[in-house]
## 1
Amino acid sequence: MAAVSGGARNGSNGNGGGGDGNLTEGGESRPERELFQRVRARLRAAVGEDVFNSWFARLELEEVVDDKAHLSVPTRFLCSWIQSNYADKILATFQTENPGIGRLHFTVRVNGQARPRLNPPIEAIIEPEAEPAPAARPQRETTQPRGDALSGSALDPKMTFESFVAGPSNEIALGIAKQVASAAANGTVSFNPVYIHATVGLGKSHLLNAVAWAAGAAEPGRNIVYLTADHFMYHFITAVQRQSAIALKDWLRRVDLLLIDDMQFLQGKSATEFGHTLGTLLTGAKQVVVAGDAPPRDLEMLDERVRSRLSGGLVVPIGGFDLDLRRNIVIRRAEQAQARFGVHFPPAVIDYIARIVISHGRDLDGAVNRLVAANQLTQEPITVTLAERTLADLVRAREARRVRIEDILRIVSRHYKVPRNELLSSRRSRDVVRPRQIAMYLAKSLTSRSLPEIGRRFGGRDHTTVLHSVRKVEQMMKDDADLTQEIELLKRMLEE
């Protein structure tokens, strides 16, 4: 694979710039410079200003040779991200302006000059799927996982430390996350592994994204991977099917910083493989950060050794938001909305949202977004009256306490005097089966979890088992008034 000549970048400051005017006079010819200006303009219009500034502002055209456009970026992290997530869009945009361009070639700039990537390779020729290079596909499949596996899951450019709103319930987790990012950026390990747990919408994913951004921005050569659990499972299963599991394992073990989100969804062979990978990474002093919705001891789908490994690191909980933190989050989102759309949120509206939306941060974001949309559609100013009308369903949601499966297991275990681990076991005795079925029924009735999710939380059972239990309890309640009253009592206990 031909490398782009470094001499094409003489005179550049190496930062890549943030606007169309930062194209060098000595690099491309004037037609190429004008071509790239048009491509950048199309990209900015297609993806919006925020995404463009995050990903494409530092992308530069080195030269066009035959049908190949040579592009460069200042960091390895940015090169991997653009190549894995936007290469097709960039190629299509080039072809709109110049149909003769059929391939893209990415390199990383060093001291303002483009150069090929070092081992492991990241530079690649991006071609249309309809016209693959005959030799490129087998080589890529046999030597390493595909690029989308290498890049991990998509990072959100809005989830940074700067946009994270701190309060008493999350300030310790924020401090630990910043310390991990700083250590990773310097090639060292702080607490390892770090396990952050909280219910949905309290900022776990935000912190993991922020760690990835902070560590990756500081050191372009650092191998940083963020994966959701389902993404990890997908790539592991795909690698097994393609008989390239060894390559995937080897690649994971070369990671400097591995961030796994939504750990509660990891199961089966993927969970076992994560256990092996975790052990290897810890032995090699590599940093691991994991997030889940429950403490490690409650992740029943994981092997006991994995749970022990996670528990033996630093376990950091994030608690619910108090009124002041909710108000500060709404203020931050309102400021962003005013900057972007010119809408004004009076203090009374901010206080109203903070008081009625008590579930989690995503609902706070959603409440602000709804009011912005209502204002834009109707031109009605944002007032408490508009908020009451627009957010009525969130007020109703506030009236009922959110019930977790973990709460159900605790209450049912205590009420029927059956150990929690027995409810999750395979025991079939009547004194265990009936409470287990009632617990599954309550999980289906009082939570938004799907049947497969409930099955996973009840010892990895199939969704058909959960459905059978729910129907069984419903039938028993029709025939037994005492049981109906007993279950209503359990519901009241859970909703208190």
Note: The chain has four domains: 6-129, 171-317, 323-399, 405-495.
## 2
Amino acid sequence: MTSAAPHRIYLIPGMFGFAKLAGFDYFGHVRRGLAQRLSDAGVEAQVEVVPTPPTSSLRHRAGVLARTVNGTAGDHGPIHLVGHSTGGLDARLALSPTVNLGAAGGSLGFTRRVRTAISLNTPHYGTPLAAHFATVAGTRMLYALSLLTVVSLSGGEPLLTLISRVVATVGGLDQFLGGDFRLVSRLTDSMLRLLDAKGRGDVQQMLRKIRVDQGGIIQITPEAMDLFNAATEDSPTVRYGSVVTAAPKPSAWTLGRSVSSSYSAMTAAIYATLYGFTSSASKPYPYARPDMLLASELEQALGEPLTDGTNDGVVPSASMLWGKLLWAGRADHLDVLGHFRDREAESRHSDWLTSGAGFGAERFAQELDAVAAFILES
């Protein structure tokens, strides 16, 4: 029997994420999967995607979350917050009993209705990659990666191959990864031509937001997250859960088996670079330290012992632990959203990172089953 008041599920994008852009739905696979699972359980659910700015401060992003919930959640029914990557931190900040989001955040009365806060690959203890993105070269690299992510995921396989040719033509991958300003400008102009007029306008607006406000990048370093965790309290009425994954350490063997085109070869090289930055642990500011039982469970699920260097290409795996472990497995940072390679003809999945994780529809279904079950327990 369907409940009178529907469950409200809010999906919160991560850093340089978005709701919909250039015809691409960032949370499309998760949104459809969760809605179907709750419907199958006889529970009416309304799913919203929060339009958080891509690289703004956590406080600003949490304010957007609060305003979005206030404007759409009505007066009744349980609320669930599901954040990918930095989106999980936005949820934690908005739910903290002592938070002050300022006037821009609006009323936080809705937090009394929140039942669960679920984080997917969230850097609860920070990520060393943020320290690189905070440099001049790293900021340019982030800008180019944001563009590449949007255009590649919205374009499908033919466009992916064309993108790799564009990168090679305008300067090559080495310069791309090095954040050369002239290359980034040329790459931006070349790749935007691959989109229609509306898509170009949407992407240009997103890139402007990244240029103007990058306050959130420095805030997710391990050093900054040490302060965040000291000042941000969990709500005693909310159940917290997390999804934790790890992708393979880059090697000629693991990546070679996954490379099937010039585009996948390019993204494999990008993945190797990102993985290298992310595996550089910050020893003075450690990640979560699971007990022996949980560490053993994670080792079995991830296929390797959990160390400070274990990561998904963007976030250290030990940094993802917060609350109850809902699901763990082999996956890269965008796999958990359904952005993975799938050879089925009817599949709408499209990959971005070639990590060699081997994530597919079966693991994605297991992940969504675990998230939906946690929501239904509330």
Note: The CA atoms of residues 88 and 291 lie 23 Å apart.
## 3
Amino acid sequence: MTALFCPKCGKDAGVFYDNVCSQCFIGDKKLLECPQVLYSRICPTCGSIFKRGKWSLKEDESETIISCVKDALKLEKQACNIELTISPKQLDYSRYGVHVEAIAKIKDAPVDAALDVEVRISWETCDTCSRISGGYFEGIVQVRADGRLPTGEELERCKNIAGDVAVRAQEKGDRLAFIAKTEELDEGADLYVGSIKLGKQICRAIIDVFGGKFSESPKLVGQKNGEDLYRITFALRLPEFVRGDIISADGMVIEVQSCGKHVSGIDLETGKRFIENFNDLMEVKKLSRREDAVPAVLVSDEGRTIQVMDPHTFETVTIKRPEFLSAEAGNEIKVVKTAKGIFVMP
């Protein structure tokens, strides 16, 4: 069998690429190139990473190091079917040693390469954390309630909703979606938000759960690059009614079980379920609270009507029999006396 020689280097060769052996074909082509030392900027407060010219969301530190190396790597333009293995190893608090291996083909010629890189972390406070520490905010969401004080449970849930909205906005890349601080007040709570957009999103999310309304009041605070800068106060008002309230709604007497965009509860006269869009109710008035109910004697049950002893005058009063009533004549039941009359409580 005739031996084949590379016309360029004279060595034996069984396979040729562009009429030369693989070693001559690869020549001085470099599959991998990378600076020996790279730098990555990470915020020590929130873990955000500065890459491609801007601060981005927090990610696993090892992933940050791998991304830093990938962005700095230069690969031979003719290479294809590239398989990269990047192995970071932490050396100390701010240094990683990274070993890189690559396998590829250049015009079907197999080629491999390896190199080692050191990545040094520069711990820098990001723009968002700088603003938070400096007390920066663009809006205030004032959580209040119409005609009453919001409950502690309502305020806690509103704060949780606001926090969830901010997290979702951050995940979508809004760097100003933060709540700078929360002030607890006798009349409610004030949420200081990093952007006007976030303030609106929080108001809408709370109203989706509780109902209510909000208004905006802008205040000029300065100028930047010739443009006026405003801070917005969002006056958010929760509905007047809460669970346990007894209200008159369009002629019906309802014990409220929930009040948001819809009011749901029990019609105390009939015992039937009640649900209605809050904004569709024309005449709504608070009559009493479940806590105001008092014991009374069920005098008689006549099917469609019952007779109850008025707990204050001790007179016998005839009212409609609600569907939920299961007590028998002579039993003690709970009733509430309102401007609309006496009603049995479920």
Note: Residues 10 and 87 are 39 Å apart (CA to CA).
## 4
Amino acid sequence: MKTAIVILNWNTRDYLERFLPPLLESIKGLDASVTVADNGSDDGSAELLRTRFPDVRTILFDRNHGFTGGYDKALSQVESEYYVLLNSDIEVPPHWLELLVEWMDFHPDCGACGPKLLSYGNRDMFEYAGAAGGLLDAMGYPFCRGRIPGMVEKDAGQYDSPAPVLWVSGACLMVRSSVFRALGGLDDRFFAHMEEIDLCWRMQLRGWKVWVVPSSKVYHIGGGTLPQTSPWKLKLNFRNNLLMLQNNLPSTIALALLKDGHKAQEAARLGIRKATRLIFRRKILDGLACCVYICTGRWSLVKAVADAHREFSSLGRTPSAQEVENLLGECPGAVVHGLYGGWIIPGAVFCRKKTLKTIRSL
């Protein structure tokens, strides 16, 4: 098949029962297939797939390998030109897939793209996970066109033009299989959360583009696996944000220095130094967030942040100057889109700005 849609399932039997039928209906007559990779569920998901959806290819794992490990293992068993990573808690309308495939076909420099993500429960609102394409601020905080920290916009067509972005949500992500494999897939250290940002960022450093294609839209429930209040989810977000910055910031800064006239060796060395300083500042901000949790008595969240930093110290690895220099030599013309030069938190939290447009007007 030209396009392989792969759903990674972990204990979301009810979502499979609800959303697989419209998904299968939407790809009738298309050169596309659906595979469900089950991450060791114990809720009857495998039995449902066997009895209710016998024509859907199923890959069964004996345990939960996380989003990263599960997808890397599943996609290694799938052959297609395009992969679509699709959450089990997404409802798709007709023609959602054709629009993404068409975009990839006509834009050979596009490594990944994604649809507009709308809320399943409130369909004229963007969904928090990805909205209309993801960006990153100067302190490494992800946000979206249509969603800033703590606030989600109504979809009034304000982001209906295709746009290059830093990332699109892993809830519905189309990627060229050749690019996915060349990059080594998802970073398995992440387990879950922010791995798609890291993947899309690494793509751009290798000269590929990432686009949001708003003519395609899907409806996402969100929080289907881990609730927003989960201390484990908080730990993964804090830890993985640091891993993501460590993976990509040195080369991104070095690329800008190279374009400013620095020699590759000097750009690589300065890029690592500046990235290390920014990550240190980000860890201080994490510590301030931890102080808020202490003041409000949320001790499980305090522990989550502490665990995140401890695990980052053991899992993290700063790229060497030679590695950064090699990347600069291979892709000197790479452009990283979707990096916002300001810090989004003060405007969103303290000034109560409600949209990306008002944030940028500060």
Note: The chain is about 45% helix and 20% strand.
